[in-house]
Amino acid sequence: MRPNIDISHTLGGKIKDYAEENDLDLSDAYREVLEAGLDELTG
Fold this sequence. Notes:
Blueprint: H1 9-21, H2 26-42
Helix pairs in contact: 1-2
């Protein structure tokens, strides 16, 4: 399930593809992507 924020269908599709490629459910994929992004932004 997508978080309750405005995410383009293209970006949502990329997350879905990432989930399928890494054998994750969609919630876990969003969590991983968000955590990786936060780590990158906060160093």
